[in-house]
Amino acid sequence: MCPLRLIPKIFLFDEDELAPEVRAQRILNKGRVPALARYILENPDDYVFSALTASVDGVMRFVGVSAQGPGMRVGQLHIPMASRFLINDGQHRRAAIEAALKENQALGDETIAVVFFHDAGLERSQQMFADLNRHAVRPARSIGVLYDHRDELSQLTRLLALKSPVFRNFVEMESSNLSARSRKLFTLSALYSATSALLQGLELNSKDAERLSWGFWEAVDELIPDWGEVRSRSLSAAEVRRQYLHTHGIALHALGLLGNTLLHESPDPEEWKPRLAPLRDVDWSRTNPDWEGRAIIGGRVSKNHQNVVLTVNHLRQRLGLELNVEERQAEAAYQRGER
Predict the structure, then answer these.
(1) Cα–Cα distance measured from residue 327 to residue 238, given in angstroms and rounded to the nearest whole number
(2) Is residue 113 packed enough to be buried (19+ CB in 10 Å), middle (13-18) or exposed (0-12)?
(3) Chain-centroid distance, C-alpha 70
(4) Cα–Cα distance between 317 and 335 in angstroms, integer?
């Protein structure tokens, strides 16, 4: 265990502009550092970091507490301070720790685990980096939302998924993709993105955010009868997902953006609910040519930023809402065939 105050001083990260073949790590992405540092500063009592991995260019000597038995594996590691410590894995954590210490020096007495290897040269260090990252798999965003108890929006999304009559029992809580035979209609990550879009820029306390999002999705549900037919078992979830667009992440996100516009104009349900009424007449079938080039590219649903903009444009036009500058530009390019 190494005190955080020592991390920036003894663990080196070679930030010189070297060619990839003569480096032992990837280039530091400085854009990641502020978020990591803020995470430490905002959660000083319960932040969690995995161990750093470092190579030591120097003579290391381990002295166990006993000469035999379990005590041989417990003891002190002696490393001359003239040694060179090179981080093989954890350079962004190291940079974040350094940034956090500049704002809160009291964190210096905190400790982080470090795994030491003897430095056997550049080739070995490069191989260590490759091995450490070879099987790294980023967890699905849905399970990240499910397990995040710090983020208020994650808490609200879980509440909607578990308690709302619209979504209860029909949200995939772990995976961010639905299999062809899944009985679920939505993914938790898609619901999170859509609700985030819905509440963006609205200054609401947690109770009002819950009330508004709960009411909005119930209002949308009334205008998309297929959702209710799946709940009543008249239609299968797989059939609806295969034939219609309204359960896909891009449609939910577009609906959230649409609702955000209405809520900014007035949070009063008596005013925004009637304005959603034209959604009842939207043809959500994937065979509808209106979606080609907007939400569907070559027969496949696509959710890049441009597709989200074009999809919400279509819905705004159905509701008689004005497009902003970016949306008008995207719409003009779409109409010219620049897809």
Answers:
(1) 32
(2) exposed
(3) 43
(4) 14
**Model confidence over 215-255: pLDDT tens digits?**
999 999 999 999 999 999 999 999 999 999 999 999 999 99
Instruction: Count CB-CB contacts under 10 A for residue 86.
Output: 21
Give me the residues paired with residue 248 across strands: none
The predicted model scores a pTM of: 0.79
For the chain, how are helix, strand and coil distributed in percent, rounded to 5? 55, 10, 35
Compute the distance between CA of residue 339 and CA of residue 58 in angstroms, rounded to an integer: 58
Instruction: Report the alpha-carbon distance of residue 295 to residue 260 in Å, rounded.
Output: 20
3 state SS of 59: coil
The tens digit of pLDDT for each residue in 43-86 reads 998 899 999 988 888 888 999 998 888 888 898 889 888 888 88
Report the distance separating Cα 157 and Cα 172, nearest Å.
Answer: 12
Are the CB atoms for 249 and 256 separated by under 8 Å? no
For 261-285, the pLDDT digits (tens) are 999 999 899 999 999 999 999 999 9
Q: How far is CA 135 from the centre of its chain?
A: 20
Is 13 a residue whose pLDDT tops 70?
no
Q: Which residues of 154-187 are buried (b: 16+ CB within 10 A; e: fewer)?
A: bebbbebbeebebbeebbbbebbebeeeeebbbb
Alpha helices in 137-224 (DSSP H): 141-147, 152-163, 188-199, 206-223
Residue 127 φ/ψ, nearest 5 degrees:
-65, -40
Neighbours of 24 (CB within 10 A): 21
The residues, ordered by sequence, that sit 6+ positions from 139 with a Cβ below 8 Å of its Cβ are none
